[in-house]
User: Fold this.
Amino acid sequence: MDTNTVAKLLALNKAFYGRFANAFSASRGKAEPGLLRLLHSVKPGARVLDLGCGNARVAQLLPPGCSYTGIDFSPELLRSTASPPHLVSYRLLVADLVQDAWAKSLTAGFDWIVIRAVLHHIPDYANRRAVLSQAISLSSPDGYLILANWQFDRLPRLLQRAVPWSAIGLSEDDVEDGDMLLDWRRDGYGIRYVHLVTREETLRLAEESGATVVEMFQSDGRTGDLTLYALLRPRCMSDTVDR
Assistant:
């Protein structure tokens, strides 16, 4: 995917979340079952990095004494957050995970890194791999990374609302397999770019980024399979892959 196409898709999503920040935040529940299952293992006092944090819901779900850093490209989403009193530190940063040097502003050694509903909004495989590689470089040697990606192909009614690429001046030849434009119809009409991150791509991303998949499962939604979760560790810590 060329850089102009990447820039156009990133700008599309940035404009979408800027416009629909309040409606999007209101549409989210407190937490998904799959996310709660993994966050249950976070211990009090852990350092947690939340990439693409949105309205920082993850911070509310952490045990007491944790240090939380959240990064998102939407200042509108970040403005809807409030510092949870049970955390010892709470830091929010505005940065684009693809276009900005966000990792340089952080100190490595995070116990948990959450990358939830993020990679499926990043155009181009090389960019998704770069974001994951940077995240792994910020992990502590015995840390964990949580990947969570929307499996929108499980919703036929949603796929019927796919928007043609011509709507934004692109064609199928400009994008990757698994890329789509999906519409939004709450408090107005909007378009988002999404990419289907499959089990196969997750395993490839982990392998090429220096991580091992400890566990992978699907959860959430009425059908219990609308999110693909993967629990990763830096490769030096584990050789177990659950396929």
User: Anything to note?
Assistant: The beta strands are 47-51, 67-72, 89-94, 110-116, 139-150, 179-184, 190-195, 211-219, 227-234.
